[in-house]
Specification:
6 helices
Length: about 100
């Protein structure tokens, strides 16, 4: 089962932003972001908003990505770690239609 931290990490990597760079842009502690991205803690809504703002994406895009992952997991019996190991990242440009 996926977690929000894995989704945020995948989106950060898609934008080619380092964890350190994201922390500076979002004014978040690096250790906190590490724990978040590795699902050691659950983020607050405020943290997710700051994370999204730093990536330049709206919160709804994270929710949409979460739903896509959930559907893939259900339909194909795989998890988000499989996507990352295959080099998959969400293509937000295709969602504009």
């Amino acid at each position: 089962m996926f977690a929000i931290g894995e989704i945020l990490k995948a989106l950060r990597k898609e934008k080619k932003i380092s964890r350190r760079g994201l922390c500076k842009m979002a004014n978040l502690d690096q250790a906190h972001v590490y724990r978040l991205e590795n699902n050691l803690i659950n983020p607050t809504f405020e943290t997710i908003e700051r994370y999204c703002a730093a990536l330049g994406i709206p919160f709804w895009q994270v929710a949409l990505y979460a739903e896509k992952i959930k559907d893939y997991e259900k339909d194909y019996n795989i998890n988000i770690n499989d996507f990352e190991s295959w080099g998959y990242v969400a293509d937000s440009s295709s969602e504009k239609n």
